[in-house]
UniProtKB/TrEMBL annotation:
Name of the molecule in the record: YlxP-like protein
InterPro entries, per database record: DUF503, TT1725-like_sf
UniProt xrefs under Pfam families: DUF503
Length: 92
């Protein structure tokens, strides 16, 4: 089972691309380390207060894949400097 999510977010306090990338790097590192998911910025690379993050998890069990994705999304929500605005999940 492959579950992917496209997560659009606002980074309110970012005043430059460098600040935005700093926030994203911390989130990507924690997601990869804690939940063993693949993470990448998919869109809005040249905007400093908006981003689209792609997350993918693979599991032999659908329930485990869903739990992992929900935990990853909860981790994103735990960062006060970023707000998740739109999330699209899809089974592949």
């Amino acid at each position: 089972m492959i579950l992917s999510a496209e997560v659009e977010c606002f980074v309110y306090e970012a005043q430059s691309l460098k600040q935005k990338r700093s926030v994203l790097k911390r989130i990507q590192t924690r997601l990869s380390n804690e939940y063993n998911v693949a993470v990448s910025e998919l869109d809005f690379q040249d905007l400093w207060q908006r981003t689209c993050i792609g997350i993918v998890t693979i599991s032999s069990n659908k329930v485990i894949a869903e739990q992992t994705m929900q935990q990853a999304l909860a981790l994103i929500d735990s960062f006060p400097e970023i707000e998740r605005t739109n999330t699209l999940t899809e089974w592949l």
